[in-house]
Amino acid sequence: SLGNLTFLNYLDLSYNNFIGPLPLLGRLQQLQYLYLYNNNLSGIIPDALTNCSNLTEIDLSLNLLVGSIPPKLGLLSNLVYLNLKSNQLNGSIPGEFGQLKLTTLFLGDNRLSGEISQAFFRLSSQQYLSLEFNMLGKVLPSNIGEVFPNLIELRLQNNKFEGSIPSSISTLTKLTPLYLNDNKFEGPIPV
Predict the structure, then answer these.
(1) Which element (helix H / strand E) includes 47?
(2) pLDDT digit string (tens) for 127-136?
(3) What is the pTM of this model?
């Protein structure tokens, strides 16, 4: 069992045809990089994953994972990259993510819904934020430009965001792609 490889710090099993639940990796306390993307893994993301307290990068994208995103992932204080894109995850984005040093967060193409917690907007180190193709809604914070000063990529298309586009978005001078299409924004386009 991979769970016995307690000195393992890098695990990449991506681009295979693995099925079933995520493997029990809670004993791999040296693990820093976990790549299981592009498989057919199913079931929930277990809380036990947070026992791998040295994780800096997790990529579980392009699988069949269900359930909500565990708030306990917010305990992974070294986590800078999290990709859960293209699964079947539901519920809201945990506010506990606001405690992390994430630079990259990809949660697009899931079934996430509701308003984004204000605690989430403490991620000042965020550079890549991808939340497209979900059912997220409500208004964006008016100070989004100040909250994410290092943002390079922002993908919020195909959600249920409403209200006006915050004018502070124009302060994101490092931004290259900005996708806000297919929402319910209204009012003037900020210039």
Answers:
(1) none
(2) 999 999 999 9
(3) 0.96
